[in-house]
Predict the structure of Hemolysin protein YoaF.
Amino acid sequence: MRTFLPILLSLLLSGCLSSPSPRETSTSQLANPASQHCLAVGGKIDSVKTAAGEEGYCTLPSGERIDEWALYRRNTP
């Protein structure tokens, strides 16, 4: 019994001291679907800071500049 308890405690503590897996430490973020759509159609993303926050625009290869979400809504059903 005297040897069993220290071994059990060391096993329990070693489980608590392991380093977190890469999945737990990653800072992955979900991509903005409107921004992804802009890039997919060959556009270039332009972010503009306003008093209300940040607005994203997409400049298309044709030269048209449109709000990212307006483009997304226009092209996706």
Q: What stands out?
A: Helices lie at 4-16, 22-25, 33-40, 68-75.
